[in-house]
Each structure stands twice: as C-alpha cells, then as structure tokens.
Amino acid sequence: MKGSTYDGRELPEERIQEMFGPSEVGMIEQNLMNQANIANAISYYCHVYQEKHNEYVRPFIPLHDLLVDVKKAGYQIAIFTGKGRRSLDISLDQLGLNGLFDVLISGDDVTQLKPDPQGLHIIMKELGSQPQDMLMIGDSDADIEAGRRANVPSIRVDWLPSVSPKSFQYKFDDYMMTDVKELRNLLRLL
C-alpha cells in the first residue's frame, strides 16, 4: 500500500499500476481526489523522485557506453517516453545522460500516448528523418506497437530488470534483444 500525502488515502500497488499510461503529472491530475492540491502534489512528487532516484534507478553502464558510441559515430538519438518532462530531466541528469539526445519527447509533449506513434512523428519531423532512417528500441508492447504504427523498424529489449519477457503480449517479426552486446552487434550490421 502506498500512502497519499494529499488525499489521505492509501492505494495498493496493483491500483497504482492500473493508472499507468499518462505521465506522472497526468496520473496525479486524473487520480487526485483533492483537485485543489494538484500543483502541490506534483511538486512533492518531483521532489521525492529526485531525492530517491538513485535508490531505485542505477546507471546501466553498457547501455550508456553504447549510446555514447552511437553518438560519436555521428548518429542522432532521440527519446520517446511516457515519463513526464520533469522526471525525464531528473533521470537524464542523475544517470549522466544529458547532452546525448538530439530530441526528447516526453509524455507531457504529446496528446496521444503510446502505442500511438505521435511522438515518433514529432521526432521524425524534428530530425528531418523518414521511418526507414530510424530504429525504435523499446521495452514494452506500447513501444513496439508505436514503432510499427509509424512504420519504423523496432527492436524489443528484455534486459531491463523492471520488465520480464512474459510482460510482452505479442510476438514481433523485427528484432528481440536480451543483451546490450547483441544490440551493439546488430547496430554494426545495420
């Protein structure tokens, strides 16, 4: 059970997971019963997220190194995440990833959430890219479906501890990677 400072109620973990979809700000706006406290609740969430980030999220050095190498090779890199802009900025800062990405699209930057490909279309426009010039790498069904809807080749990754392979509902014809080394080898071939 998780407590709510601004509603005075506790929610089971399952109920919180059912709210996933919009950014953290969207989740708070849609689910906080005491609407007068939305701004304070969002501010409090961001404060706690920043304060506790390193307790729950560890740098993933092999992926960090791959991103640096891809960037050094002259490729453009973008993020399309459902995470809100403030929490994305906190994560990028605390994980040492600032400056690696050419475009950042958060859940706050789109009106249609994944699996809708709106964020990928924004990235293509900002980078001046076509679907065949891109590669979507994702850790959820929504990521891969967004890639498919945008006609962007997609790679499913199963190396993240918060996502088990069983969480994928669909089988995909593109690529599936269980290790960053596999992804590195594939990128060399493409």
Concise account of the structure shown:
This is HAD family hydrolase. 44% of the residues lie in helices and 11% in strands. It is mainly alpha-helical and 190 residues long.
Give keywords.
190 residues; mainly alpha; Rossmann fold; 2 domains; three-stranded parallel β-sheet; two-stranded antiparallel sheet; 8 helices; 7 strands; 44% helix; globular; HAD-SF_hydro_IA; hydrolase; hydrolase activity; HAD_sf
Word description of this protein:
One of its GO terms (molecular function) is hydrolase activity. This is HAD family hydrolase. Keywords: Hydrolase. It comes from Alicyclobacillus dauci. The chain is mainly alpha-helical. The chain folds into 2 domains: 2-56, no CATH class; 61-189, HAD superfamily/HAD-like (Rossmann fold). Helices cover 44% and strands 11% of the residues. The chain has 8 helices and 7 strands. The protein has helices at residues 13-18, 24-31, 38-56, 61-72, 85-94, 118-127, 141-149, 180-189, and strands at residues 2-3, 10-11, 78-80, 103-105, 136-138, 154-157, 175-177. A 3-stranded parallel sheet has the order 5-6-7, with helices on both faces. Strands 1-2 form a two-stranded antiparallel ribbon. Helix 2 crosses helix 3 (38-56) and helix 3 packs parallel to helix 5 (85-94). It is globular. The termini are far apart. The mean pLDDT is 85.
